[in-house]
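Page header: ASSEMBLY MODEL / two components / 576 residues total.
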Amino acid sequence: MTDPIAATSNYEVDLGNLMAYDPSHHVTAAASNRAELREACLQKATELAQAVADVLFALSPNEDRDGPIVRLPPPATRLPREKHLPKPKPPTKWEQFAKMKGITKHKKNKREWDEQTKSWKRTYGYDRVNDDRDIPIIEAKATDEPGVDPFAQRTEEKKKRVEKQEKNRLENLKRAAKVGALPSHIQLAAKALPITGIKADLPKKSRKEDLESVAGMASTATASGGKFDESYLVRNLQSILANIESFSLWLKEKELVAKRNSNMTKS
Amino acid sequence: MVAAIRVPKSQRARRELLKHAPKLVETNKKTLILHGTKTSAVLNSVLSDIYHLKRDNAVKYTKKNDNIRPFESGGETSLEFFSLKTDCSLIVYGSHSKKRPNNLVLGRTYDHHIYDLVEIGVENYKSMESFVYDKKLAPKLGSKPLFAFIGEHFESAEELKHLKEVLLDLFKGEVVENLNLGVDRIYVCTAISPTTVYMMHCALRLKRSGTSIPRMELVEVGPSMDLVVRRHRLPVESLRKEAMKTAEHAKKLKNVMKDPIHGRLGKVYMPDQEVGKLTLSNDIKGLKRERREAKKNKEHSKKQKVNSE
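Prediction written out in full:
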């Protein structure tokens, strides 16, 4: 009984999604009884499932330790993505400069030989090679002023360098965020949500289109829809004249108002 | 003072946030299940059933949210915020009112902004617990389901076309290339009218048949309900175009030939040399001699000057 039915209908099988669709089926009188509808649906679904299985099990399986594994084709029905395509990170200021100058990166070793202590020390972190704080003696130069502390000077300079580096890092991240390539674990405070707020509370910069639409809405927000506002007329004279109906209506209304006024003055 | 760059303090939090980064090929979409101010018993059951079907990659909120109004311009900000915080791109929002009883809003997001919405009403609902069947046939959690869509209305009616796409997105599970042949569940959706879909969830039984292809048998296990499409919002065309973009395929390398003997070969093309238009380099011997002699003469004249002084 099922054979002639299967032969006539062509099912669309999307193997990537394991989906089968019968576009030619009509649910006619089956809608009468719930149980009958259910039976009919189950029967049709069995046929469709069989159609998918026919194609699926026909693929050659590779034997894996968990059982036969089959390679599915990519899905036929295209579904929208959930996030934008990953954008490449724009090069940082240093990377641009290095490219221009032809400076290549060289890998640093984790440990370096320290001549002073005659031992292998780390290049960074605790007990590192050229630590600024380990310098015991700074020789006085001819250019040194009497009251200046050279050690304090060195710490000041280091602080300044660190601040500059942080500023540069922020600039690089801002530039990446503008393109849309900010790394997902970093959040820039300027765009971050306030503690109690939702996105709606952030003051958004109005765009030109938004302002134009709001201006349009505001100008027609009078009781008569802005038809008798002079500024509205001046701005949209062309479109109004083009629509002669509304223009004649305006003329008629003007006449009526004038008549009413004259009647009032009369009486 | 708030730091300008906020980074998570622990490595675990950092790894979790790195999972939220956009990928070239997307495989898994997480679902957020929540409800509004008022829900009915039926709707609670529906939401918990959907959560059980999608246990591994779904988040279910238990509190009521009264500031969510889908289909209204200001009422979706909360949904977008939750989508951002939980990294979910599929939203199932349930609510119950006199005008819209047993209302489910299925929504999808793109970049954590609402992409499209379908509002459906649930009727004739039968929960998962009410079905009696052999427990050995129960489909395993996380197995890839089959889909059976029946009815011409899925092609002709706009709302049903949209609903079909959303249902596929919601229940399809992880997109994989290699599949083990342990398929054990199927979602059956029949379009019984231009606005209604009768949805069933069945377990598959593979019976021995003569050939290598097993015979399919369906056993109803899961929730079954009638979905009546009430409202729907299609995505904005520009957003749709952007969301449908696929990853660019690697460009075909030109001028690269593989030779079994010599390995990779490429042709070097030399442009025609126009001898008459060539510029002379500074390395020519004649020029060098001239310059050398000019230098000598200059020094000689300098020395003479110094001597005279």
